[in-house]
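ingest -> validate -> predict -> emit
validate: passed (alphabet ok, no gaps, 312 aa)
predict: started
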Amino acid sequence: MARRIIIDTDPGQDDAVAILLALSSPQDVEVLGITAVAGNVPLALTARNARIICELAGKPETPVFAGCDAPLGRPLVTAEHVHGKTGLDGPVLPEPTMPLQDRHAVDFLIDTLRSEPEGSVTLCPLGPLTNIATAFLRAPDIVSRVEGIVLMGGAYFEVGNITPTAEFNIYVDPEAADIVFRSGVPLTVMPLDVTHKALVTKERNDAFRAIGTPVGEAVAQMTEFFERFDKEKYGSLGAPLHDPCVTAWLLKPELFTGRHINVEIETKSPLTLGMTVADWWGVTSRPANATFMGGIDADGFFALLTERLARL
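emit:
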């Protein structure tokens, strides 16, 4: 049976590719809904972008819900310097015609987790964890009903990309991340340590374009726009596809390697705010709460991505 998931997201070019990968794989994952959160760009744009991607995939029936427009207790930090003013800069895509659902994303999360069988829904956050944490705070009874959380966020060996010590998704709302990481829900974490190994080289991007469809061309244009930032900052060969690692793990977990360790979130220090303090070497007695990935079969990842995108 297909794993039933809710994608929580702040699209973002790499979020878009993660959504496309999920929507191309209905035999493996059933997308119950997409919940938008403020992050890479403000909420109005992330809710718009999620619908644009559903329509690009030919899946306008996918319900999209707008959620929290700011972190739990901090001003919103956005990333237009990476993703462009719309969050999806690169391709020229039409404005969405499918409706935004009239329920708040947090209400959708709570209602779905209460109504579906216990342990049957996996949450897949690709951005700040504000929606998830808010749902857990408002309805503590749903926490034990979640099958698991597979998220993109954090770093250990790669440390930070928005500050010297913090990855963007966790940094935007560290209090929300702290709630989720302390929740007791089984966590699978895709940190920068993995995602920075999933680089879109020219050859890999040529393969997207060679699909010969609107989806293939749009993905190629998105990554061409996205890569300018990472090439300049890191001197890398292309753009890391952070968020599709979440979807790829759902489809082929054997592509990834990691360790089940303790991960805690720094919420107090002005120097290391939002840091994922990962006990990779087991030097504390803190109990393990997350499977923290460290390696990826990048060739296998891109082969999967290209094959699935060609289905749309």
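The chain has a mean pLDDT of 96.
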